[in-house]
Description:
By secondary structure, the chain is an alpha/beta fold. It has helices spanning 15-23, 47-59, 80-90, 100-109, 126-135, 148-156, 182-187, 239-245, 259-278, 287-290, and strands spanning 7-11, 28-31, 63-68, 94-97, 114-117, 139-141, 163-171, 205-207, 215-217, 232-234, 249-252, 301-302, 325-334, 338-343, 352-356, 363-366, 371-372, 387-391, 403-407.
Amino acid sequence: MRFNKPEVLAPAGDAERLQAAVDFGADAVYLAGKAYGMRAGPKNFDADGLKKAVDLCHSKGIKVYITCNTLPRNNEIEPFGEFIRFAAQCGVDAAIVADIGLMSLVKKFTPDMEIHMSTQTGIVNYVTAGELYRMGAKRVVLARELSIGEIAEIRDKCPPEMEIEVFVHGAMCVSFSGRCLLSSYLTDRDPNRGQCAQPCRWGYHLMEEKREGQYFPVFEDEKGTYILNSKDLCMIDHIDKLADTGVTSLKIEGRAKSAYYVSVITNAYRMAVDLFSKNPDDFTLPQSIRSEVFKVSHRDYCTGFFFGHPTECQYYSDNGYIRKYDAAAVVESCDEERIYAVQRNKFFLGDTLEILSPGCTFDLYKVNALYNEYGEPIEDTRHAAMRFSMPNTSGRIYPKGTIIRKAVD
């Protein structure tokens, strides 16, 4: 059961990241209110922000899913009714839940709202998926630990009206479906309530109890000490194989990532899905699109469990990111003569930049002139968030939100 054009589902950790997802082609976004979401670090959305977010997305034909996917304790149950009723009043299209109790409360307080069962639920077989559908779930977000073949079997053995969502890009958790206790034990920050301190990314050593203070590195195959540190997931080369399983939605991880990250990765998957839908029987991803996923801060990539048991998905040498590009600016407006933008990182006259607009691969741009907001010539963009302009030498009119980036030395 192939979907020739699966949904591109982008993360939105705050209003800026939401705008990036909207500008760069998301079909739907997922976000959190100030409670019940699995990412406590981002700003997320207060009551006023949530209403504005839904109005913006719906004006562009984009759906909004609100995350209620923590594992709530007793004291969090009573306030949930007011929370989910307000989300429904705002026009949220679906609630993402992991807890059967919260699922029952969504049905009770907002019976018309769609329910999506979170990856935190740990759905790995067609019986569980089908039963959740019969209980009222419209969509199941499958566990990351499934292969392409297992996903296809779930699709074949469940009602065709049941939607299936899978994660296709971003950080992976060493614990099953993100259900981890390391952070709770080591830092008293509960990962199942959005507070993970990511201790799986730390370096570990062995200490013999009678030799206090003498630490020994923990090695595995002589690759290093970061024994729990997973690579990032990337499935952009395999849109056709994902579509062949019958999945409805391709989910990008990253509510804690930057607006630049959301822009670039959403744009890459948007272009890949659009290209696939034009010729689904002969899909080959151009290098110009594939290269985009390497122009954000990322760990080494792998394909997770999609093609069987992963043998190269742990990263032992360090816990850092690969970063070869920075956002230099974001376009505010453009005409045939000038590009007007707001600075994100400093750059200089003579630099070569890349301009990335929605639905396109980048244009190269040589900085031969720069002007401050008063039209005076300047040598660089040294002030944080300064407004500036530069000549439009391409002849293209770049839309608001277009990314200007530079390679990192």
